[in-house]
Amino acid sequence: MSANVANESEAPRHPPRHVAIVMDGNGRWATARGLPRPAGHHAGVETVRRIVEAAPALGIETLTLYAFSSDNWRRPTTEVAALMALLRRFVRAETARLAEAGARLTMLGRRDRLPGGLAEAIAAAEQATAAGTRLHLRVALDYSARDTILDAARRAAALPSLTREIFARLLSGDHGADPVPDVDLLIRTGGEQRLSDFLLWECAYAELLFVPRLWPDFSAADLADAVAWYAQRERRFGGFGAAPAAAAAPALTAASPAVVPSAA
User: Fold this and answer.
1) Is 29 marked within a binding site?
2) CATH code at 13-185+193-231
3) What is the rounded distance in angstroms from the CA atom of residue 97 to the CA atom of residue 3?
4) Cys staple from 103: which of 15, 74, 98, 136, with CB 3.0 to 4.6 Å?
5) What is the biggest distance separating any 2 CA atoms in the chain, rounded to whole angstroms?
6) Exactly one of 4, 7, 72, 222 is catalytic; which is it?
7) 235 annotated ligand binder
8) 172 marked as part of a ligand binding site
9) Confidence of residue 240 (pLDDT cuts 50, 70, 90)
10) Band (179; pLDDT cuts 50, 70, 90)
């Protein structure tokens, strides 16, 4: 990952500080090309690299990626094993690049069920990139928003008082001076239109953008289009204001007629 992807002065005037992405469509991308599903996950990792490189120049400070949900353990054992091995290699290979680029990596979700040294690789990567300030990259792995909320509620029960800010810190596990901001823009690739148990609390006022393009085909230009679309939205947070200007969703279409959005 290059630390000099683009000049931050090129970022939109009102970019989303926190962008979350449901990276959907890897398996369908592979199947449409006659490839085994794990090939789609390999292609998806390349997309992660280019999106992480592009994010800071667009004014994005926090990027949260949904890599593996707690419900994904139901998928075929061979596919899950291949994905976990790929994630382990990715974390180990990218740690130095992230640190050089000034990116801080943290993981959300359970770690007690992760196989083969993955949890240890994650912990080492978090420690090595802890000083990063250019981008906070958060990867949700074995993650369930409902389980996270339940766990935070259990811990909150022991506190003498509770506010939204305190609860948000419990959710993120970030007890430092600068808690993770709420999600401003949530993007889901692959054509599906649901949150799938992802950042339910944090997305309370997020702008939701569902695009048919499959994740391996999602580009830095697509991310820039999504950020530009967000910048046209009027953020009222329940207050009263002028009617929002009409903002057409970016034309992020499927890569080819052969790739048709369908159930994952």
Assistant:
1) yes
2) 3.40.1180.10
3) 8
4) 98
5) 58
6) 72
7) no
8) no
9) low
10) confident
What is the CB neighbour count within 10 angstroms for residue 27?
22
Spacing of C-alpha 141 from chain mean position: 10
**β-sheet bridge partners, residue 136:** 62, 104
Q: In terms of Cα–Cα distance, which of 117, 64, 119, 122 is closest to 91?
A: 122
24 is in an annotated binding site: yes
d(CA 179, CA 106): 13
Please count the residues of the chain. Answer: 264
Catalytic option among 4, 7, 24, 151: 24
* Residue 147 bears catalytic tag: no
**Mean pLDDT (whole number) for 27-37:** 95
The one-letter amino acid code at 187 reads I
pTM of the model: 0.85
CA dihedral 229, 232, 233, 234 (to 10 degrees): 170
pLDDT: is 146 or 256 the higher one? 146
Average pLDDT, the chain: 86
Question: Is 4 part of the annotated catalytic residue set?
Answer: no
pLDDT digits (tens, 9 = 90+) for 99-125: 999 999 999 999 999 998 999 999 999
Angle 231-237-243 (CA atoms, 0-180°, nearest 5)?
A: 65
* 146 carries a ligand binding annotation: no
Residue boundaries of the structural domains of the chain: 13-185+193-231
The answer on whether 196 is annotated among ligand-binding residues is yes
Query: What is the model's pLDDT at position 251?
Result: 62
